Amino acid sequence: MGPIGMGSLLLIVFVALLIFGPSKLPQLGRAAGNTLREFKNATKGLADDDEKTEKKEETK
Q1: CA distance linking residue 23 with residue 17, whole number of Å
Q2: How many CB atoms lie within 10 A of CB 32?
Q3: Least confident segment among 9-18, 24-33, 45-54
Q4: Cα distance between residue 51 and residue 47, in whole Å
Q5: Per-residue pLDDT for 26 more than 70?
Q6: Are 20 and 28 contacting, i.e. CB atoms less than 8 angstroms apart?
C-alpha cells in the first residue's frame, strides 16, 4: 500500500468536515498532534533504554 495521494487526503478532510463540522476540526487536530507527540516521545524513550542496555552489556 503506497502513500496517501492528494485525492484521498481531500476525501478524508471532506468526510471529517461532514461528520464533525468545522468548529470541531481544530480540537481534533490538536488532540491528534498531542497523541502523535506522546507516541514519538515514548518510542524515543524505549530506543534510548535499549541503547543504554546495550552499552552496559558491552562494558561487562
Answers
A1: 9
A2: 10
A3: 45-54
A4: 6
A5: yes
A6: yes
Please give the residue that has the higher pLDDT: either 32 or 46.
32
- Rounded to two decimals, the pTM is 0.52
How many residues in the chain? 60
CA 36, distance to chain mean position in Å, is 3
Residues 8 and 47: their CA atoms lie apart, in Å, by 33
Element at 4 (helix H, strand E): none
C-alpha–C-alpha distance, residues 26 and 12, integer Å: 15
* 21 grid coordinates: 463540522
Whether 16 contacts 25, CB under 8 Å: yes
